[in-house]
């Protein structure tokens, strides 16, 4: 497999939506065609600062074989910008062929071109295969992630 990464374009819709639905399923989210379509619309229009990257097999596999969605964010304590990797997913049939690594290289290049000084993301602790790739290209941080539901207060 010979992989190249490029920005997502309108003709990627069907492949991208199939992969993104698989990504949601991987993380235990229920099937939600509206959520997939809404996210695709954001990617295509670059809404909310999202840039969509896709990996294609230039040797002939139809459609896309991987996706990554990124967005810039401000880093006030550093007075700099960072790039956040929201989503990274490889088609199960293309795993082990360098797709995720190619996407991560493209993400790093996107960050550098935008003047960002770091790329950040998080993943599930149980996502061993992806973490083995991440451990080769990035540094695991000591930060713990919290989530708070809006309008729930601090009961």
From TrEMBL:
PANTHER family (UniProt xref): ACETYLTRANSFERASE, DIAMINE N-ACETYLTRANSFERASE
Taxonomic source organism: Microbacterium trichothecenolyticum
PROSITE patterns in the record: GNAT
Stored InterPro entries: Acyl_CoA_acyltransferase, Diverse_Substrate_AcTransf, GNAT_dom
Protein name stated in the entry: GNAT superfamily N-acetyltransferase
Domain of life: Bacteria
Keyword terms of this UniProt record: Acyltransferase, Transferase
Keyword Transport part of the UniProt annotation: no
Domain N-acetyltransferase: 3-155
